[in-house]
Amino acid sequence: MSNDLEIRELQASIGDKPILKGVNLTVRAGSVHAVMGPNGSGKSTLANIVAGHPSYVVTGGEILYQGQNILELDADERSKLGLFLAFQYPVSVPGVSVANFLRTALNAHRAQEGQDPKKTSIPVAEFRKQLREGMKSLEMDEGFARRYLNEGFSGGEKKRLEILQMTLLKPTMAIMDETDSGLDIDALRIVAEGVNRLAGPNMGALVITHYQRLLTYIKPQFVSVMMEGRIVRDGGPELALELEEKGYDWLREELAGAA
Amino acid sequence: MNSLTLKDLTADSVVATSHQLGEPAWLGERRRDAWELFAKSGPPEWRRSDLSGLVPDDLATFTSPGITLEWDQALAAQGVVFKPLQEALASHEALIQRYMDTGVAPLEHKFSAMRAALWRDGVLLYVPKGVAVESPLRVRYSLPDGVSATFPRTLVIVEANASVTLVEEFSSNDQPVSALAAPISELFAGPGSQLRFVSVQHWGAGVYHLGAQKLVLENDASAEWTSIALGGKLQHLDAETTLKGNGSSVNWLGATFANGTQQLLTAPWLRHVGHNAESFMQFKTVVNDTGYSVFDGMIKIEHESAATSTRLEEHALHLSPNARNDSIPGLKINTNSVLKGGHASTSGDVDDEQLFYMQARGISRADAKRMIVMGFFSPALDSIPLAGLREELELIIEGKI
């Protein structure tokens, strides 16, 4: 079974409006792969569909991960397969503490069919240790764990919490959706360091971003460009620099010329 | 004691029973007045509570007591009294006579009269001046086998600068046929006192809970009140906090969950009389299946009050399109002197974005929903001082999702 994430001819719409018009993209296991593109190109839609957001209607294509077409799985099953989406806009859940949420998520990952959840659940001391270490590495306050999930969090706190969740859940493939948006330079550094600690042989990453800025902190091996619901160009890190320098218009014109 | 059905009772038999129990004459007379009103009046016009399934005549009562008290008896050495009301009449008659019926009016309508005429199981909690009680006291009312009508009565008197926590609980097995519970709770918080009151209704199926509760706060008294309604077939609960004293305050939290065919109505009122009093009420309601709940909350700011600060909120969460919640928050102001006053009401389904966010972390949809509901109820649940009771209620709530 392959830990490559393979997206083939993916088509999707919201209501009647087509957003993805045949996306082909392979994120190699253990690699960092950036997808860049202008606003409205369908990048976040792609991230949400890979994670299993129920609001999009997939009208064609498939997404393969670990030998399965994951489009047939619910979001929680995809997570347990090792996929992780760091949300662009993390959702608040009043009354549910960060610690409770994380412990429940970890236990869901550890649960085994037909086994008593008490046997598979993480021991409290072990959980506290992981949580404490994770928070320390992201320069988070200890009181953070007792706060309600994303409730009243600043932009930076929300993004750090996403990375904290990633740190504890140890996914094999992470999708970072505009993780740099709304971050000041310090928060960006902390978040990027968190990603870099995990990215490597055990975790591939699909990094979705509008700007090159994030890619100076999280170095991709591969860069693809998305426009109007399709991947229009694949390349290496130099492609990101070219886009930074020249914007997206030259590519748009080039594509129009080729058509 | 003999088993009786309500239709066997007469004014004379009610008074005779009172005498047999050794109750003082004034109480027998109060019961007679109440019975006479009950017997001659029709049911109140409750538009949102359907009592057609309740046939009071055939209900059996008085067979056996359904009350349990749990407390640290060492508190008695400090003068704290916590004992069945019938017993307390022998030792604290004057005190009971002074307070009883001054909170909840006994002759307001048919059911208030019924409660006042027939109450049997009950408790007196008395905390003397300046005594601070740390550990919570607990009174549990139940429906013993063979009893299908119960009339519990809680009387709490907290003297000046004393503090105490009382948990009042109503619970039973599911009832084979309809049963009736008609409780009265009267709570009096003296000057500078602190009272925490947690009232939990989780009757089994089939129980009609027709209750009245009243809390009166004197100068600088403060109260935390938690009202939880989960059980029974129908609830019609009139509850009121009167902020009588200057500088008094109340923080009132509620959690109601109606599922199946339950109809749960709560009418919590905040009545401001004193000056510079502060009140906050936040009720959370969840409805599922074809459950129906009503929040009939009201802030009443009386003309003699001044510099009131008050806020009332109700938030409802719908788990099923066939469930219904009526929210009727009201604000009546009879003075020009209000510092802050407001109310808010929200209503919605479980948020798909919340569910997706939680599922994206591996949590199943069912568990995510459960966590969202528990989180929604957390202000009220977090205020329960007994860990065991909280766990029990969480299990009940989980079963209703």
Percentage of residues in strands of chain A: 25-35%
Question: How confident is the prediction overall: mean pLDDT of chain B?
Answer: 94
Q: Count up the helices of chain A.
A: 9
Task: State the shape of chain B.
Answer: globular
Residues in helix, % of chain B: 10-25%
Q: Which geometry of chain A do the CA atoms define?
A: globular
Largest sheet of chain B: 13 strands, mixed
Structure commentary:
The complex is a heterodimer of chains A (259) and B (401). Chain A is an alpha/beta fold and 259 residues long. Chain A has a domain at 5-89 and 209-258: P-loop containing nucleotide triphosphate hydrolases (Rossmann fold). Helix content of chain A is 37%, strand content 27%. Chain A has helices spanning 43-51, 75-81, 98-110, 117-120, 124-137, 155-169, 185-198, 237-246, 249-258, and strands at residues 5-14, 17-27, 32-36, 57-65, 68-69, 83-86, 93-97, 148-149, 173-177, 204-209, 222-227, 230-235. In chain A, the strands form 3 sheets. Chain A has a 6-stranded mixed sheet with strand order 6-9-10-3-11-12, sandwiched between helices. Chain A has a 4-stranded antiparallel sheet with strand order 2-1-4-5, with helices on one face. In chain A, strand 4 and strand 5 form a beta hairpin. Chain A starts with a strand and ends with a helix. The model of chain A has no long low-confidence stretch (mean pLDDT 93). With 401 residues, chain B is an alpha/beta fold. Chain B has a domain at 4-245. Helix content of chain B is 22%, strand content 39%. Chain B has helices at 11-20, 25-40, 85-91, 93-99, 110-118, 352-359, 365-382, 387-400; strands spanning 4-5, 60-61, 67-70, 81-84, 122-127, 137-141, 149-150, 153-158, 163-171, 179-181, 184-189, 194-202, 207-217, 222-229, 234-243, 249-258, 263-272, 278-287, 292-295, 298-301, 308-318, 324-327, 330-333, 338-349. In chain B, helix 1 (11-20) runs antiparallel to helix 2 (25-40), helix 2 (25-40) packs antiparallel against helix 5 (110-118) and helix 6 packs across helix 7 (365-382). The radius of gyration of chain B is 21 Å and the shape is globular. Chain B starts with a strand and ends with a helix. The mean pLDDT of chain B is 94. Chains A and B meet through helix 2, strand 7 and helix 3 of A and helix 6 and helix 7 of B.
